[in-house]
Design brief:
This protein is α+β, with helices and mostly antiparallel strands. It has 13 helices and four strands. The structure holds flavin mononucleotide.
Amino acid sequence: MNYEAEWRMRFGEEPEAAPDLPDMPWLRQVLMRRTHRRYAERPVPETLLRLLLGTAFSASSKSDFQQATVIWVRDHPSRDRIAALVPDMPWIGNAPEFLVFCGDAHRLERIGKLRGHTNENGKLEGFFNAAIDAALVLQTFILAAETAGLGCCPISVIRNHADTVAEILGLPDKVFPVAGLCVGYPAAAGHVSMRLPLEATVHIDHYDERRLAEAVDAYDRRRDARYSLPREQQRSPDVFGYASFYGWSEDKARQAAKPEGQGFPTFLRRRGFCLD
Ligand SMILES: Cc1cc2nc3c(=O)[nH]c(=O)nc-3n(C[C@H](O)[C@H](O)[C@H](O)COP(=O)(O)O)c2cc1C
């Protein structure tokens, strides 16, 4: 069994022939997965959402520390306040459900106190472990939700307003938002976002970027052949001008040229982390 159609959608190129592989429909689904930002009016049943949360918290967890917490934002005024922070992403306010996935280094500290032990969880290692746990729970939730026919959109831009989000959600010290998540039944089919080839992202035995430039050029062309970014979507033309060919790599290089999240380290320090 080949996964040709799905592979072509994900990578824009032909897969290696693998006729002896069994058919695994869930892998087809994941190869075709996509973010959704527009949702049908249809509500998400509470029982389904709780099942998805249980599934999400089945994700692996570093040292079994279980340092993720989800805030399910059901209070409309709270949601509206979060949505108002990011007016150019109306899906935050419009999605049927909105959750915030947090890294939680606080709970382990409390457990230490309950058991009468000191706790060393406020350094970079504690922050990093909690961030990873939250990201794993987030992606497990997304894949579970997509399996149930739902669509999701993670929202990390809320980290640019971390203080206000923490105040709205009542987050204690050492609990930080990793990303919000819009959840609902998709209003449209959406489209598969093409990924870099495995040649660029999977290296055998040692790091190898010798063919990166060629791989990225070819990827830009494949992606552009499926969907060209229109001229008006070129980023910061006042700074960089207009490119005659504007591919993914030019877009991402321009995006990364602008600093983001500069306030986050200060937020983390104020919230009890020392990032050494
Ligand atoms: C950690 C994380 C944060 C994201 N933050 C945002 C966001 O703030 N707003 C948004 O519209 N999409 C956000 N996204 C969605 C990405 O833009 C999307 O996953 C990416 O374009 C690839 O598309 P795909 O998921 O359809 O393959 C985020 C995704 C991740 C994994």
